[in-house]
Amino acid sequence: MELTVGTVLEGKVKSITNFGAFISLPENKTGMVHISEVANTYVSDIRQHLTEGQDVKVMVIGTDNGKINLSIKRLEPKPQREGGKPNFRGGNAGAPRQGGYQNREQNQARPQRAPVQPAAPKTADQLFEEKLKAFMTESDSKLSSIKAYSENRGRSRRRG
Hints:
Blueprint: E1 8-16, E2 20-25, E3 29-34, E4 55-64, E5 67-71, H1 104-109, H2 124-159
Parallel strand pairs: 3-5
Antiparallel strand pairs: 1-2, 1-4, 2-3, 4-5
């Protein structure tokens, strides 16, 4: 049986490590589910999600140099938050944020800002004035540096 990316298989958890779980597959093959591919929420301890000997359904997500990379979470439906946005905060989406951030209720109580109006297009005179101002600023800067250079050069000649 040829294992290609996207193939869905039944397997059995063979062993568990801190970084993932090794899964026994058909035809005496073994693949690994990395801890980040176990569940759609943050997994700090893989043993809370899997046990040795457990039957699992996995998807092949890669094959490199004979190693078979597997995923369990890609076969699960993605959790949805309010507003249809995916839940990136894991299992504690309703918990208040810490470290200076405000929780969801406080954000909803904040008045909404009015939409920003696009600026009116600039007239030819305004564009010319902006270009002239930029030119004058650059010119003054160059003249100042030339003047400073020539003054320093004159001082060094007088000393010698």
